[in-house]
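Collaborator request, handled under Task 6.
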Amino acid sequence: MSALSTDFKNVAIGTLVMAAVSTFADAFWAAALPEHRAIYGLAHGGIVLGLLGLTLAWLVGGTRVWRWGIVSLLVGVFAAVVFYGLYPFVGSLAMLVAWMGLWLAYAQIAEAADPSPEGRSRSVIRGLAAAVLSGIGFWMISGIWLGPHDPGPLYWRNFASWCVAFAPGMIAILGWRGAKAS
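Structure tokens returned to the collaborator:
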């Protein structure tokens, strides 16, 4: 299998894994958490986004994958702290800012887990692309929590929505990694 096809297989795997994890987290949040509390958001951010970093480190073929999972858990908690810190000032826009910031961090985690032939400067470009493009996808799907839920949560819709949110970041970070830099 060529490096390019492996990269895009990894994009698909990463997108589907994280869409499934996020949909499960949405269902758990709706069923088990009676009210919104910051501590739940911190745990949610840490666990779900820790799994995102772990998935990225695994898909780039990095060594010490669990180490990057722990770092990613901390990034996820930090993203939740950013959200809760900004929310009183900018409302729901805080979620977008936190989401975009974590993609910048995850591009660096993927690069540190398995350095690419492109070097560190390209990982910054990948992170910026992931932040902007995934940020657009994330903002497009934000109605899965913010909109009305009649007749209730539609988890197939959440899964499809999460695919839209995760795919651009996965493409920016994982796509073309195996291709030789010119």
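The cover message to the collaborator said: "The chain is about 80% helix and 0% strand. The mean pLDDT is 85. Please let us know whether this matches your experimental observations."
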